[in-house]
Task: structure prediction
Amino acid sequence: MQEIILQTPTMTGKIYVGEDAIKNRLPALLQGQKNFVLTDTNVYALYPDFFKEYFDGTEIFVLAAGEENKNFQSLQSILESMSKAGLLRTSRLFAVGGGVIGDIGGLAAALYMRGISCVQIPTTLLAQVDSSVGGKTAVDLGGVKNIVGAFYQPCEVLVNPAFLQTLPQREIKCGIGEIVKYAALNGEIFDALCKQDTLDEPQFLTSLIEKCIRHKAQVVQADEKESGERRSLNVGHTTGHAIELSTGLSHGEGVLYGMFMETQTAMEKGVCEKEYGEKLQQIVRKALALTPMSAPDFSGIAKDAEKAKSDKKNTGNNQITMSVAKAKGVWTTLSLPFEKYVQALENAVNSL
Ligand code: NAD
Ligand code: GLY
Result:
């Protein structure tokens, strides 16, 4: 098991990666106080032995699976259940699931009694390489992604790649969406993805989990609240979130299309090196080809782009600001007036 330390002004968090991470760490974390588990219906049904072995007698809240449940109503039910269970300040919340459970669980932990310890146990590839680390917690509101939330670091993240064995192929692809983001930021991950033909090969993915986490931990450590370097972790996300909301694609798929389109735009604007940008787009194509799906209908892309206006990076002056890849291991921001952004997206759709 590998140990990665993530130190911020508010917390020293520990991340453990490996098949023995849970076995080695979970029993000690469960000792001595009333705890609370948040998971979703799919994970709960798939892993009865895991819940029995570690969480027998612990209050377990099973949320209906799906992004549509990452909302205020669910948050309120979770908090009510925590209160009813009599959790104390010393209690811990264990979020066992994908990014939806991690985000809403982290927020519930941040709010309950003004903050109790949170342990993330990510079970999707996306959550293992990205969302369980770094302390972004949120729910969606009024059709806007992650608009209500808090930065709240988990005390520990326990990453066991064995959970990925039950993950549907489409969810593997979504996780690869975030891995491609790290390829856009990290030369070593970029080279690994360029060389690898079958991106979903399990051993290959396992080898990337730790690399992505190490990259993210370093970025978050330098800029926890996203005033500078952490914006890099939004590469592909401005357009990706807009696509996710308007097409109903999942987060990772939206990020893949967003990455393709924003890279195309950055190349056209002379911000991204052409040869490098095309290689990055090749990786995106390899990832998108992992599951057969008909191309989403982007005929309404101009209307979809409206959703990008609600992105948290914008300053409200009719400009859309994106984090984009510039060259191997180098990123930058690109701001365009809204009309130019729409035009660029329309061009990008044509080169998909
Ligand atoms: P998810 O949590 O909805 O999980 C995807 C699906 O996989 C769900 O149906 C879930 O029940 C199922 N699942 C989970 N583990 C499984 C397993 N081991 N085997 C089989 N099925 C399993 O979605 P996600 O893709 O993990 O996360 C997406 C969410 O993460 C979005 O809400 C996004 O906004 C958020 N996110 C947050 C951050 C962050 O930094 N906090 C970063 C990226 C994404
Ligand atoms: N997923 C973006 C971040 O954690 O900053």
The pocket of glycine (ligand 2) is lined by residues 130, 134, 136, 230, 233-234 (CB under 6 Å).
